[in-house]
Amino acid sequence: MDGEPTSRRSAPGARGRRGPREPGVAPTRAVLHEAALAYLARGAATADSVKKTLERRISNWARRSVRAGRDAEGVASDAAKARELVPEIVGRLREVGLVNDSSFAENRAKRMSSAGRSRRAIAAHLAQKGVDAATVREAMPQDAGAELAAALAFARKRRIGPFASDVDAPEGRDAKREAERKALGTMARAGFDWNVCERVMRMNREDADERLRERREF
Hints:
Layout: H1 29-41, H2 47-67, H3 72-83, H4 86-95, H5 101-114, H6 119-128, H7 133-139, H8 144-158, H9 173-189, H10 194-202, H11 205-217
Helix pairs in contact: 1-2, 2-3, 2-4, 5-6, 5-7, 8-10, 8-11, 9-10
């Protein structure tokens, strides 16, 4: 008889259809530890970020389990026990140096400053990542030149101030003042101090480029 045996044939349209994956048991210490390592393998993270990642994994398991028809109270109890493991796992990762908020904050602050982010923007970003206020203060670039260089990098990205295109330069005193006012407002909304903004706007292109070169060599 030609054709595939009846027992091995698939029903029309059945190929590729799979039901929801069985949730399995609540995440164990080993599972959560492996999940944390996998998360850190993608890049440095704060203790708070690792904690939230593991808690989301537990919450996702609980949600799938309830949808699968399991007893809601039992699922909640198992999820609560799994969450109790998270602080211990995060603490262990900190002990061995895989999680270090100070190092994370310092490296992230330097990179963001070089990319044209203001101190205020950097501080807000680190706080959102769960870095405490004292660690944020220590991580901030302390020299005034860093903030000016960051403002210049921001202006270069936005093509404002000394980096504005000559082709699009406004004509007339009023138009120039309006363009400068808008540029100052853009920088101020990005978190730069008004005095820093004005310094940038007073610079010519040559001086601005030189200051950025000096900062890269710093």
